Amino acid sequence: MIRTMKLALAMSTLALVGAAPAPAPKQWQVQMLNKGPDGQLMVFSPAKLAIAPGDSVKFVATDKGHNAESIVGMIPAGATPFKGAINQEIVVKFDRAGLYGYKCLPHLGLGMVGVIQVGNAANRAQLQTEAAKLPGIGKKRMTALLAG
Ligand SMILES: [Cu+2]
To answer: How far apart are the CA of 7 and the centre of ligand 1, in A?
Structure first.
């Protein structure tokens, strides 16, 4: 009888551990800068960020004259595009897994691009194809960000 009760207690303890909730969603920050910590001009910092599905990212208008918007063809299938206005801080919630390529509209050709990886990177090949179509330094930096 006592042995049975001990077993039942052990099993209920295991059930509690198994039911532990997923970690709470996080809010990350990406700064929009005229000059990055490494001296590069017109950057998102960090330019590459890995987060979990359900997390959100705040694009902070640290310097003026920038925005953050997803690039057509560079988000996972079924994901919602996002577009902030110039000088506007936006918070974007990422529910769908995959890679998201984004840009600052005025400075795309100067290389102001970034990548958010939400969970897996299953759509990497598609983004690499699209990156090759970007102008100027945007193409160069995006290709490097997607290299793995
Ligand atoms: Cu910009």
So the answer is: 62
Q: Residue 64 domain-assigned? A: yes
Strands annotated E in 52-138: 56-60, 69-70, 90-93, 98-103, 113-118
Domain assignment present for 19: no
Q: What is the DSSP string of 67-78?
A: --EEPTT-S-TT
Summarised one tens digit per residue, pLDDT across range 1-17 is 455 555 444 444 445 55
At 79, which CATH number?
Answer: 2.60.40.420
What spacing in Å lies between the alpha carbon of 113 and ligand 1's midpoint?
A: 9
Range of the domain at 104: 24-145
55-105 pLDDT per residue, tens: 999 999 999 999 999 999 999 999 999 999 999 999 999 999 999 999 999
